[in-house]
Design goal:
0% strand, elongated, mainly alpha, single chain, 2 helices
């Protein structure tokens, strides 16, 4: 025997008192402007100018990886993959 009980569905028609209009100053962030079409947030934003040339190259490579793989954030392994693709290699240190 189940302890579940039947609940009547809510009336969500246009005449329903539940549906209200939004305040005039409400900003629906789910709706994108035409000018935003295709733009994505970047990890480094506009801070490329403050980076060294090597830092700029890495930031651009990470951003390209994120766009190509549709990722907002990347893991450490993915960052390592980008760095290796740029030619970075681990060098043995002599003690």
């Amino acid at each position: 025997m189940s302890n579940l009980s039947y609940v009547e569905p809510i009336d969500c028609t246009a005449d329903s008192p539940i549906i209200t209009t939004l305040p005039e100053n409400f900003l629906d962030r789910r709706i994108r402007n035409a000018s935003d079409k295709g733009s994505e947030r970047r990890q480094f934003g506009n801070s490329y100018r403050d980076l060294s040339s090597a830092g700029q190259e890495l930031a651009e490579a990470i951003d390209a990886y994120k766009v190509n793989h549709r990722r907002r954030y990347i893991t450490t392994d993915e960052m390592l993959e980008v760095m290796v693709a740029l030619g970075y290699r681990k060098v043995a240190v002599d003690d």
